[in-house]
Design goal:
alpha+beta, Cathepsin B, Chain A, 7-stranded mixed β-sheet, 5 helices, 11 strands, 17% helix
Amino acid sequence: MNKNEVSDETCSIYRARGRDNGAQCSSMIKCMNCDHTTHKCFTPPSYKIYHTDEYGKVSGEEKMMQEIYQRGPIACGVAVPDSLENYTGGIYEDKTGDTELVHDISVTGFGTTEDGTKYWTVRNSWGSHWGEQGFFRVVRGTNNIGIESDCAWATPKDTWTNDERHHTTEEERNDPLNEELLKDMPEVKPKFL
């Protein structure tokens, strides 16, 4: 985000795909809209963009807490044991020792229970039906699920005051990968009742 512009989720929905398990990048992956009358999808003529100004890495309980206090949420890699996928509430603690980082989350805060249990408050990307309305709490201070080992912070660059936008070129509009995206990922085609 520091070197390249990104769009927001209103035109680039999260598809749970990455560089090694998804479609090749195209202008439609960066931003796509669909016409409800023609049922055709397209890259809009312009769309809002975002950048980061500063960024860095952080790890360890105290440094993470300080970063959250100073600048807000941080992104961290975590392991995903089966018990996390089945989490429904409370303070989560993995007992298997799994620290293989396979998923990214956002640590939004931290706290301590009345009985003294320290925890991180974490926003996940699995939907509001999961966990505590899309969030979970995990024990803090023990690197449980590897949460305290690989995190990053960033500060946003102001692109909204002057409404900075990407202006789609003819080449982007006609990118052959756009059609491939629609073929390979039928779930992005609009469905109407």
